[in-house]
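Q: What changes when TUI is included in the input?
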Amino acid sequence: MIRTELCELLDIEYPIIQGGMAWVATGELAAAVSEAGGLGIIGAGNAPADAVREEIQKVKQTTDKPFGVNVMLLSPHVDQVMEVIVEEEVAVVTTGAGNPGKYIKDLKTVGAKVIPVVPSVALAKRITRFDVDAVIAEGNESGGHIGQLTTTALIPQIVDAIDIPVIAAGGVADGRGLAAVLSLGAVGAQIGTRFVCATECIAHDNYKEAIIKAKDRDAIVTARSTGHPVRNLKNKLTRQIEKMEREDASKDKIEELGIGRLKRAVIEGDVEEGTVMAGQVAGMIAKEESAADIIADVVAVAEEVLEKSCELISN
Ligand code: TUI
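A: The predicted holo structure follows.
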């Protein structure tokens, strides 16, 4: 059994949390991951508060186990989403794209654990001045909006810089990845892209197939020139963005082109003109399977890898 202090902190069986992916991570996926012993997370993205409340209620109707909500702090609905999270007494809140400092006092009144995503040591240090319970250190192998450092470089530097538990994100899709980030000092891993291909995930079949078909170099970074780089699968849209970047198009024009494109891919299944966010691990994902099978496989392989490394030492 792989248990770490993350299991005690979040009252979960395995040190695995699911990425809070906008549009993709609905109540259905979060409930399945939590029911299987990980921490399921609803991705609030830019959704209005009422829609987030519906997803929370879906999870509560399916499982009694703890789950979380990921709040994208640039959302226009962030204040109301945080209010709903407090009213619904959600156990865990992860945040992205900013500093959740001003919401922490309210979240703590209902005992929520607060876990911000950080892409750098500087931000990890700044955020730990607030009453946060852990951080998710996200390497640039991740899908979606990314920072500069790789997971292998980022995790040990953040582990050395702060005194609270560090969860690794970016580049983890199987038990080898989980064992690797535990070796780097993390207490667990966040997995995103592999859970997109969970049976319970509502992403369009075309989106799941695009990930399953992807090869090692297909998850590329676009929109670097805007200062908000995004990792997504190569398609007609990424070629169009690359062309605009070569022609020095303005940041506004490039960002405007991206509006509504994630929904177009995830919900409508337009994987050519939509944004197909996925991590570098897309090339490792071979099939659709249940969240429970994904977790069982990650845990079994991590145990095998860690046992082998113990044998290496004792021999
Ligand atoms: O948030 C992410 N990745 C995302 S969010 C997202 S939703 C979306 N999709 C399409 C269009 C618009 C939004 C897709 N991918 N990762 C977590 C993350 N957070 N990465 C980096 C950060 C971050 C950046 C700056 C966290 C804090 C921060 O703070 C700045 C400051 O100084 O306060």
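Observations recorded in class: The chain has 14 helices and eleven strands.
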